[in-house]
Amino acid sequence: MSSSSSVKLHLWWRILVILEFLVVQGLGLNTDGILLLSFKQSVLSDPLNVLQSWNYRGQTPCSWNGVTCGAPSNSNNDYSRVTSLSLPNCQLLGSIPSGLGMIQYLENLDLSNNSLNGSLPFSIFNATQLRFLDLSNNLISGGIPETVGQLRNLQFLNLSDNALAGTLPATLTTIQNLTVVSLKNNYFSGNLPTGFQSVQVLDLSSNLVDGSLPPNFGGNNLRYLNVSYNRLSGVIPPQFAEKIPGNATIDLSFNNLTGEIPDSIVFKNQDSKSFSGNPDLCGEVTRRDCPIPSSLSSPPNVSSPTSPPAIAAIPKTMDSDTPEPSPGAKKSGQSKLKPGTIVGIIVGDIAGIGFVIMVFFLVYKLKRKKRVETTLKQEANTVKDNWSITSSSSESRGFTRWSCLRKRGEYGEESDTHYFQNTQGLIFVVDSNDRERISEARDELHRMLSEDELRDATLLVFANKQDLPNAMSVSEITDKLGLHSLRQRRWYIQATCATAGQGLYEGLDWLSSNISSKAR
């Protein structure tokens, strides 16, 4: 009795425990909550504790911070499901898991202004109910797949200020409900997509988009178009703006566009700054007369350079008695450079000259001491002794040397004005993680730009340390440095991570290209 009874009692006890476990599981967190917890698990740092309330207790996540639930509009179910996840400006560090794209009725996803990295999971582009997607100002890399066209309900897409690359998917133009697209400050390349019909706001500025403007661009409903700071080239086809409303705002500045601006209402309604940075554009809007056909040919005895000129960044010229290089040392068609300028070159012609790179850090304040003259002469001699600039057909790209490093507080209170002589391009490196001294960097930058020797210099700003979680975004640095106030100067800001080499080639390509077009 006692032995058999104890066995039966133990068996029934185990059965009750199992039944209780099954009941708890049945009343536990639903699928939406479990998928949301996969995001919490992918977050490495949550300094504001915005995810503290996220746990397995309860049946639904509807009371969690940043989560909104509602009855799905296209479902017969009365119970609430997750329809929105909004956690902007929360300083979250981590990645985006594929689970977020599996939330069946998710309509709104806003994780902007955080430090999320990694690539976009493909499941995001299968969330067919998604209407609002904002992942701007993060560290997201990778590309946008063609499956983005499956987001038929998408109305708002903002992936700006990230590290996305690749070509712009053609299916982006097939989303009929899409009205706002912002992909600025990334690394997208390739041609500009065609067939935009429903989009009202399109911002593709500060990318690497190249090719020509397509005649069949579309833009029937456009109110704002910004493709500035790209690599678009060629003439503007008259058909490009054919369907764009006359009251729309268009920005084509800082590309490589050429020729006369078409006689279109929408172009006539733009300010001249919308076309600035395209030195070969002409027409009434630019206030630059187009040349008559007879003036298109090159004047006699003037050779047109076949490759971009090098960038002078060691401004102290050598003595005038430096021997001239022999004519045979150059390819035919190259423009002649003075001996002092040749010694002062730090970036060679990327396509045609041996790639000799010594990025010159002009950072914050230069301190003056007695050894400044000696140091400058030593550096000039080092450049002269170690590097010879020769012609080459090599297409290789790479860094061969870093030189002329200056850190704040090294040499005297002010820099010598002769240090900037013969400078065509100015590279200014700013620490994206140094918020305390960004104002000092701004003051030093504008002080240098006020020098007469630098009045025509093209400016490239390297926003370094973009890999750090708390680094300022490119757009934030642009505002803090006051770059938009440089109306009469060519400038560009490039997100970089010097330790990984990210962004350096792109920035130097832009600088070489713009100095080349400026010299023509």
From TrEMBL:
The keyword Protein transport applies. Residues 286-336 are annotated as: Disordered. Its main location: Golgi. It comes from the Eukaryota. InterPro entries: Leu-rich_rpt (IPR001611), LRR_dom_sf (IPR032675), LRR_N_plant-typ (IPR013210), P-loop_NTPase (IPR027417), PRK1-6/SRF4-like (IPR046959), Small_GTPase_ARF/SAR (IPR006689). GO terms for cellular component: Golgi apparatus; membrane. It holds the Pfam family LRRNT_2. The keyword Transmembrane helix applies. GO terms for molecular function: ATP binding; GTP binding; GTPase activity; phospholipase activator activity. GO terms for biological process: protein transport; vesicle-mediated transport. GTP binds at N464, K465, Q466, D467. Keywords: ATP-binding, ER-Golgi transport, Glycoprotein, Golgi apparatus, GTP-binding, Leucine-rich repeat, Lipoprotein, Membrane, Myristate, Nucleotide-binding, Phosphoprotein, Protein transport, Receptor, Repeat, Signal, Transmembrane, Transmembrane helix, Transport. Gene3D superfamilies: P-loop containing nucleotide triphosphate hydrolases (3.40.50.300), Ribonuclease Inhibitor (3.80.10.10). It is a single-pass type I membrane protein. The chain crosses the membrane at residues 342-364. This is Probable LRR receptor-like serine/threonine-protein kinase At4g37250. It comes from Herrania umbratica. The lineage of its organism: Eukaryota, Viridiplantae, Streptophyta, Embryophyta, Tracheophyta.
